[in-house]
Amino acid sequence: NTKYWILGLLLLSTTPLHGQTTERDEDGHDEEAAIVMAAAERAARGIRTEPVAARVLSGLVIAPGEVRLNDYQTLQVTPRIPAQVVARHARLGEQVEPEQPLVTLSSVEMAAAQGALIESDREWRRVRALGRGVVSETRYIAAEVARQRAYATVRAYGLTDAQVSGLLGDGDASQATGEFELLSSRAGTVIQDPFVVGERIEPGQTLFVISDESELWVEAQVPPSRVGALTVGAAARVSRDGARWFDGEIIQLRHQLNETTRTRGVRVAVPNRDHALHAGDYVDVAMETARASPQLAVPDGAVLLMEGAATVFKREGDTFHPQPVETGETLGGWTEILAGLVEGDEVVTRGAFLLKSLALKSQMGEGHGH
């Protein structure tokens, strides 16, 4: 009898007690770990979901790069005639707007051109007022052409239409002082201003470099064998320290090798709205390469470990179930899903760690995460 009593105790000890097993629904979901959360609470907690879709997974080409100004959004301010700097109106690092005065110059050539314009404009007004019936055709045409030539000269020397109109406003020859202002033709930041007041400036000499830094270029140097995997329009990211990354896009693949490095240049455009990047910074550039066939995939942030298994949170209405999945490659910020999901399933792509925390509390008996 003692033998049978011991055997009974052993059998009893191997039988699970009620409440120690995890109940699962018909789909195999862990019901004790399910989280119910209404839309308003999801929005407040930053929970985001996306449908699972097949996509062309991407690999990465990693290369060194250097941040450069966007040449298409950069302006060099230079005089067109010899002149002397009289006054500075903008300084390094300042933000300037279109038509803002940058510097006042003085030039003997400009003084002569201004005087000629005032004189020819005065003559043209007189001849035009008299009319063709009073003055000869020769004088009429000569006055008109002289005025046009004088106008074209001051415009070629750097005056704007508005500045010319101001000069001719009262027809006063004393206004022909030779002084004139160079204006900015675009909005941007003063990147360079290599001159001093009183300096004599030659035509073409740079007085200011102004650039809109809201979008910069990054020149990546890529081995020729890897450039073939890259395409214009592909996504790219750049980072100075490996911690903070900035999204960008490949906009140009150069066709000529760098003679020194034997690499090919790849140009990436990077939005720089918070001015975190600056020309001259050295960065790492991660550029995506297309792989041929679409694969079912979710963002990296959707997949986490629960009880040692890769898991996503699958949404069904206002309920989120932890769903074990079998994963494949992780490439370019996406993780391939081999099993556990089908196309169209809605999964959490942001806030999965919060749901995991709530699910674990629920399993430990601390209540559901509502």
Report mean pLDDT, rounded to a whole number: 86
Radius of gyration: 36 Å
Q: What is the strand arrangement across the widest sheet?
A: 3-12-15-14-13-16
- What is the overall shape? elongated
Report the portion of residues in β strands: 35-45%
> Fraction of residues in helices?
10-25%
Supply the helix-strand structural class: alpha+beta
How many individual helices? Answer: 7
> Which segments are poorly predicted (pLDDT under 50) over 5 or more consecutive residues?
1-24
Name its key features:
7 helices; about 25% helix; alpha+beta
Q: How would you describe what is shown here?
A:
The chain is α+β, with helices and mostly antiparallel strands and 370 residues long. The protein contains seven helices and 22 strands. The chain has helices at residues 2-13, 39-45, 108-130, 137-157, 161-167, 224-227, 352-363, and strands at 35-36, 48-51, 53-68, 74-77, 83-88, 95-96, 101-106, 179-183, 188-192, 200-201, 208-211, 215-222, 235-239, 246-257, 264-271, 282-299, 304-306, 309-316, 319-324, 326-331, 334-339, 346-350. It has a six-stranded antiparallel barrel with strand order 3-12-15-14-13-16. A hairpin with a 6-residue loop joins β14 (246-257) and β15. The longest helix has 23 residues, at 108-130. The chain is elongated and about 105 Å long.
